[in-house]
Specification:
This protein has about 290 residues and is an alpha/beta fold. It contains 11 helices and 11 strands. It folds into 2 domains: about 80 residues, Winged helix-like DNA-binding domain superfamily/Winged helix DNA-binding domain (Arc Repressor Mutant, subunit A, Orthogonal Bundle), CATH 1.10.10; about 200 residues, D-Maltodextrin-Binding Protein, domain 2. Helix 8 links the parallel strand 7 and strand 8.
């Protein structure tokens, strides 16, 4: 094997092994399919060995490919570790803070608190990503996550900003047509199986016949939109339900939860001045309005 590999070579191998296809690797690398194809062929020719078996089900690593993919994964982890440590030592109150949060929090709760941070730190650029999937901070997919959760992952640090309270809501026109004790007779909007262990999912399982749940979404933001359109009743966090003028709270359905809103970061990043400032300002702002 008379060839020297560099990180760019290894990241191609890693991308193909993770996605199992050239198309997926091209998407992850931001390249054309044909470019990834040529790069793989060139690498295998230079190394004098096959790195992948081409199968109907996709690209699978050979024994030689597994050796290089493992080395690439280790290099990637070391690079991410170094990036976090460098970013964590940045004491400037300017630059970029990348924030990942859920759709419901990002659309219906966080903006008012971002305004306070922007007022205090106008030189910090905020980049917000809305996703119901938790960002991987070990890979620096984001600098900070703002999430509603029962217990944050052990590998993250931060602050619990407030408790989460919930209630059931329905379109005002629908509630006017039913007696206050008829919640179980309404059509309901629920979450899919992934939301069964969330406070809304648990409350509905305990209080609403499954046959009455006629519509399900994979996100709380989706259930809110459906309820505002008059498609049924829904369980929402207080900050979403109370801010929807189309909806009215169904009497007797409010309940507290052990879940809270957390602002979290990776331990390597908490020394960064702008990240620390973001966590503290947003947590204080949320706590002040949640009283």
């Amino acid at each position: 094997m008379d060839s020297q590999l560099n990180w760019d070579d290894l990241r191609h191998i890693l991308a193909i092994s993770r996605s199992g296809s050239l198309a997926g690797a091209a998407r992850d690398l931001g390249m054309r399919h044909s470019s990834v194809y040529r790069r793989l062929n060139d690498l295998e020719r230079q190394l004098g060995t096959r790195l992948f078996d081409r199968r109907r089900s996709g690209y699978r690593l050979t024994a030689q490919g597994e050796i290089l993919a493992e080395a690439a994964g280790q290099m990637e982890r070391h690079l991410h570790d170094a990036e976090r440590q460098v970013a964590g030592g940045d004491m400037a109150l300017e630059g970029v803070v990348r924030v990942s949060t859920s759709l419901i929090i990002g659309l219906h709760f966080l903006p008012q608190h971002l305004a306070e941070f922007r007022r205090l730190y106008p030189k910090v650029e905020l980049q917000i990503t809305l996703s119901d999937q938790l960002a991987d901070l070990t890979k620096r997919d984001a600098d900070v996550v703002v999430r509603g959760t029962l217990q944050p992952p052990d590998y993250l640090v931060g602050r619990r900003a407030c408790d989460l309270r919930y209630a059931a809501y329905v379109h005002r026109d629908i509630l006017a047509q039913h007696s206050t004790g008829a919640a179980a007779n309404l059509d309901w909007i629920g979450l899919d199986d992934r939301g069964s262990r969330t406070p809304p999912g648990i409350w509905q399982a305990q209080n609403i016949p499954q046959a009455r749940i006629t519509l399900r979404y994979d996100s709380t933001a989706g259930t809110l939109a459906a309820a505002k359109a008059g498609l049924g009743a829904v369980v929402l966090p207080w900050f979403a339900g109370e801010r929807a003028p189309e909806l009215a709270e169904i009497p007797g359905t409010a309940f507290a939860s052990a879940h809270g809103i957390w602002i979290l970061t990776h331990p390597d990043l908490r020394r960064s001045a702008r990240i620390s400032a973001f966590i503290n300002v947003i947590a204080d702002s949320i706590a002040a309005t949640a009283q």
